[in-house]
Specification:
By secondary structure, the protein is an all-alpha fold. The protein is built from 21 helices and two strands. A two-stranded antiparallel sheet has the order 1-2. The longest helix has about 45 residues. It is globular. The N terminus is likely disordered.
Length: about 525
């Protein structure tokens, strides 16, 4: 069998049709639980990082690697997930990985030290990194064709829910339990996932012959290269990017390994991935669109919480109440989108989703220092609608552009694009907001001149307000100057976050241009 004149990779030479299982719904529940666990763990850890660092006595710099260890491990295993699924079968891989994840998440809070936490994070990341790549394959190969689109819609819903529920979960856990439950909550989901996989996923024959002929160098180059690039992106803002030797070294080493991976696949007689078979037609554009969509989703998921925390002093639980505005509508949108996609062109619904997200970003860019969580209601509802339509349509159109023989590889490709897109979004928006805040602070500060009548009047008003709680005029004047400085910084942050929404809105415009370039999916 040949595609585009290229020899199919080893792990594609297998039965492409559906594998029969007597409990497909239970199996679907298992893989969807894996998708929730994978995303929820990363987000909860990010929101609760300060509490975790304080509990184990880690400083800011070394504690910053706690979240990186988990997500870098996910990235490292993502490219190889499809191969291991083809060799051992998705059921065996998920049984082992769900069990090892549960053990790692359960043990992590008990280590009580930074090395122990990092080791458990790496194990949890390597385990959960297989969940999402194997989810798409199981949905496509085990659901009746007319129900596949609903499975994809539920998959997209789960990603959205876990992405936006994490702040509420973290806030509630810290308020009512202890930091240990930041990890034990998902650890409790792992046995349920294991049981669903055991009952609902079919047993498949192992392909030990693939191990002997595997393109191990290609797998190692891809895994190590993308993991190093991801680590550089995750730590870049903290270490000031190319001004850090570590970030520069990670980017250089990762880039060289990715180049080596491409050369290996082009020259290897039995490549792990045949680029001519995978990266053809719409697939390159769809991967780029997935990167852009994840960039937007992670960017806005950062901008709103940080605005509420920095400008309005919200706690995590209060931030979670705002993010729920995105999460809750997913229950209604998933069946609606699934039904619509059975009859509509996915490119149209994808464009509708991207356009709605873009409109939400431009609406949110009008924010002022007076905005609170409820003020984001309309823009967040619009964004919830748009992200659900865009993600579901994008995944569904990806599937329509590939044969079932490539579905496992599609899962790994999507996981790599998803992780890179999300990290690019987080790294970009963090750096962008930091730079724009510095710019606006400088610009606003230039207009606050000592001796200016407006400045003198404002300082006098502040001094009068704090005089009763100050010892003498000198302290009142000092506190008034501090209040004015805080006001300038607050306004600088408001302007920086507004700029962030604007630039993400224009990224969406670029995504709409890419959607216009998509061609119809090949006939089934």
């Amino acid at each position: 069998m040949r595609i585009a004149g290229a020899r199919l990779p080893l792990h594609f030479r297998r039965r492409a049709g559906p594998v029969i299982t007597h409990h497909p719904v239970i199996g679907i529940l298992g893989v969807l639980l894996g998708a929730i666990i994978s995303t929820l763990t990363a987000r909860i850890t990010a929101f609760g990082l300060a509490d975790i660092r304080g509990s184990i006595g880690a400083g800011f710099d070394e504690g910053a690697w706690i979240t990186t260890a988990y997500t870098v491990a996910q990235m490292a295993v993502a490219p190889a997930a499809a191969f291991f699924g083809a060799v051992f079968g998705p059921r065996r891989v998920l049984l082992v990985s769900s069990a090892s994840y549960g053990i790692a998440a359960l043990a992590l809070p008990l280590t009580g030290s930074l090395p122990g936490v990092l080791a458990c994070q790496v194990l949890a990341g390597l385990s959960s990194g297989t969940f999402i790549p194997l989810t798409i394959g199981f949905i496509v190969r085990n659901l009746p064709p007319r129900f596949v689109v609903y499975g994809i819609a539920i998959y997209a819903m789960n990603i959205e829910l876990s992405l936006n529920l994490s702040a509420s979960v973290e806030g509630w856990v810290i308020e009512h339990l202890s930091w240990h439950w930041l990890f034990w909550d998902t650890a409790l989901l792992a046995p349920l996932m294991w049981l669903c996989v055991w009952i609902g996923m079919p047993r498949e024959t192992m392909r030990r012959d693939l191990l002997m002929e595997a393109d191990w160098w290609g797998i190692v180059y891809a895994s190590a290269g993308f993991a190093l690039i991801y680590a550089a992106l995750d730590q870049g803002n903290r270490l000031d990017w190319l001004n850090s030797g570590l970030v520069t070294g990670l980017l250089l080493a990762g880039g060289l390994l990715v180049v080596a991976f491409v050369v290996q696949e082009l020259t290897c007689p039995k490549p792990w991935i045949t680029f001519g078979a995978i990266f053809r037609g719409n697939i390159p554009l769809l991967c780029l669109l997935l990167v852009l969509l994840r960039l937007v989703m992670l960017s806005t998921a950062y901008l709103i919480p940080q605005y509420l925390i920095t400008v309005n002093n919200y706690r995590a639980l209060e931030v979670g109440d705002t993010l729920l505005l995105i999460a809750l509508p997913q229950f209604l949108l998933a069946p609606l989108i699934g039904t619509l996609l059975r009859h509509a062109d996915p490119r149209i619904t994808m464009a509708m989703g991207f356009a709605a997200v873009g409109m939400a970003c431009f609406l949110a860019s009008r924010l002022t220092a007076d905005w609170i969580g409820e003020t984001f209601l309309f823009s967040q509802m619009l964004q919830a609608f748009g992200q659900s339509f865009a993600m579901t349509s994008l995944v569904f159109f990806n599937i329509k552009n590939l044969s079932q023989a490539h579905i496992l590889t599609l899962g790994a490709l999507m996981q790599t694009s998803r992780l890179l897109g999300g990290e690019l979004g987080a790294a970009f928006v963090q750096t962008f907001v930091r730079v724009r805040e510095q710019f606006h602070s400088f610009t606003l500060g230039m207009n606050v001149e000592s001796g200016d009548p407006a400045t003198v009047q404002r300082l006098a008003g502040y001094a009068a307000r704090v005089a009763a709680r100050s010892v003498g005029n000198a302290e009142a004047t000092e506190r008034a100057a501090s209040l004015l400085g805080s006001l300038v910084r607050k306004q600088a942050y408001v302007l920086a976050y507004s700029d962030g929404f604007v630039v993400i809105g224009w990224v969406i415009v670029g995504g709409l241009v890419l959607i216009a370039l998509l061609r119809p999916a090949p006939a089934a």
